[in-house]
TrEMBL record:
Keywords: Hydrogen ion transport, Ion transport, Membrane, Transmembrane, Transmembrane helix, Transport. It is a multi-pass membrane protein. InterPro entries: V-ATPase_116kDa_su, V-type_ATPase_116kDa_su_euka. It is found in: Membrane. The chain crosses the membrane at residues 418-447, 467-484, 555-572, 584-607, 637-659, 772-792. Pfam families: V_ATPase_I. Its main location: membrane. It comes from Durusdinium trenchii. This is V-type proton ATPase subunit a. Belongs to the V-ATPase 116 kDa subunit family. Essential component of the vacuolar proton pump (V-ATPase), a multimeric enzyme that catalyzes the translocation of protons across the membranes. Required for assembly and activity of the V-ATPase. Residues 674-697 are annotated as: Disordered. The keyword Membrane applies.
Amino acid sequence: MGLLRSEPMKHGTLVVPVDRAREFIDLIGRNTKMQFEDMNARDMHRPYKKYIQRIDEMERIIRFLEEELTKVPGASPVRHNVDAFLDHSDEYKLDDVESKLHKMHKEFIQFKENNGKLLERRNAALEERYVVQTAMASMAHVASSRSVRSPEDRFEFEASRSLLDEEGGTSRRSLETMFSNIAGVIHQEEQDRFARMLFRATRGNTFTHFQQIFEPMRDPKTGRQVHKSVFVIYFQDHRMGSSVSAMSEKINKICSSFGVNTYRWPSSRSAAEEMATKLKAQVEDQEKLLKAHEHFVKSEAASLLEPVDRNRDSLIEEWRLFCIKEKSIYATLNLFEGNMNLRASCWYPEEDEDRIRAMCIQNSSSQHGHSSAMLVPDKIPPRKSPPTYIRVNEFTAIFQVLVDTYGLPRYQEANPALFTIVTFPFLFGVMYGDIGHGLMLLSVGLYAVWKSDELKFSFPVMHEGRYILLMMGIFAVYAGFLYNDFFSIGLSLFESRWTQPAISPEKKPGSVVAMQPTFDHENRGGPGPYPFGLDPAWHGAQNELVFLNSMKMKLAVVLGVTQMLVGLFLRFSNAMYEKNKVDFACECVPMMIFMISFFGFMDYMILYKWVTPMANPPSIINSMIAMAMWSEDSNPMFGHILPQILMAVCMLAVPWMLIPKPIILNRRHQVQKRPTSQRFGGPDGRGGHMSLDEESLLSEEEEEEEFDLMECVIHQVIETIEYVLGTVSHTASYLRLWALSLAHQQLSLVFFGMTMLGGMSAPFPLNIFTTYFAFGSWFGITVGVLLGMDVMECFLHTLRLHWVEFQSKFYKADGYAFVPFCHRDILHKKTDE
């Protein structure tokens, strides 16, 4: 089936014994792909809720441990070996892992508390040391100020001396009034607010001095590096018989509200030096204790960080994967119903049915008695549409993602991804065609494929799109050869089929020179045209833009109509696969007739005009206008009768799409809508009562078979108008192939002419230097604009052509995905996140 249609699915019921339910679900998640339906959606009964709560707590502990391990220098767990974990996942048991995690959690909590206490002691000793150093610096300043001469300086010196007298004398203090100070350490970000609070609370009767500490300290609570400052508050202390004055008490309350640490200010220089010596030794001891503790924590963390075995993850990572796997198992078991035996409805690929049965039989040994699992397929197909399951590989996955972003295909609906693999990079190449730029894009794609394992986690977007980048580069180079563009320069790969005639002496410089063809342009059996791509003689010609515009515009229309015809053929395949005769006869056939009669005829005229020499070639635009307006063409290509017949067929296809389908559906509904007694028995039947199954089936049929003729008519009118007008607008939309190709070629030409040609046109030897710098400018502009912005622009326009113009012809895109219970898929998804 491949990518054209989704995998055939079957619906059934899985029955597992309660005592071995976890074992069987683990085997299913490891070896098969099954999607389970929630059997407890109405009553929300979740019998395995306690297991999930336990695993949630285990995951919380793992997150805590991982956060703590990030604080250990050089700690980085080994990750991303999901397959190796699945091969050895049986080594882990829930109770065992849970007990080890709780033990580790308690140990790391203790480590954290001990580390916080050690940090607090070290910081306290370090802060007091800085306070003492600030006091010593102040005392040294006082000593150096004894030689001041001016009265103002002598007054300040006497005031500071009374505060910081190194002998500690009190002869200059009055009995009731003296100066005091309070010193401590505060965060630098709080010091301005602290100073303003002191000034306001004391009405300006204090003076605060701050000394910045340049060495950052680690906060014991947050672990972050913080910057602090030493502060000294000078104030006039009035001691009226009490040991603590009101001013001192007020300042201490402010310090407490800011959470600052206060320390004793040394009374003399000798006391300060003695304190500094003791604090230096204390800081060194605390540093040794901290390093010893960090070394111990690092050794304990090594058991969690080291790989369990060769080519396996770290222990903590495998514990994390184990929790994810176990949580998914119990979440799946919560979908089952029953007491002795659990059962749940499920979807599974048809080709996997035999393997699932074999797995259930193989793991149902006699030693377990009746503890066996079984898969019971439904005898009657379910009324619900099956999910869509499309098998992809590394190459096709990105193209399927592009399609699924627009909408997932229905079950067994034609999948556009099969054609997108080729058409997407090809249409991109038509827009971006340039040999040089294509080679640059191709080199990026080759690098992404080569380094895919390294980019998987460092640059996941490039890893996922590596193959589409490669394909886009290949087709850009191919289209560049077709356009014969190499950074806007034409390449003479073969001998040109145009020659320049001899210029007569009477010819004025700068006049138009008509090139003469050397090939048989009348198809009389002479030499052929340029073998591949565009003849290099067109580059630089005065009518180059006119020729390229005509060629690329017609090529865009031909490619667009061809892709839309492919979409209509896929609509035929959908109708045939679903055996929908109404859609086949009343939609597919008239749509194809309309498309071929008008736009197919236009493409045929384009191709015929390209290969057939004509003395007076007709204008295709005028021919199409005359055909649509039922007027006479002044220069017809195939006469007047054929265009009129084709236009009449187009007009007849419109009511064909509009009228028959609602009538047929309404008639079918009237036939199927029979009295209940005729379908399930009655006076003329076999019985007068319906069973419960028949009643439920009847109610479901009545709910599903509601038919509204007016709604059907409106829907068909919208479909017809959308298709008829859409074919015109979509054909015009494909002209973006021409517009973007022309814009790319002209931008490349302008950038090259304004940089490289300007540098090379400088006189010798100046052109050596100008060319060097011009190349840098040209390369930067090329990478930034043409390799960055233009690639994105062409990519988005190509995406629009596939989503709107191509897929709208056949693609409903209203399916829902098959989401199987698979350990590998779940773990890879969580790991990528």
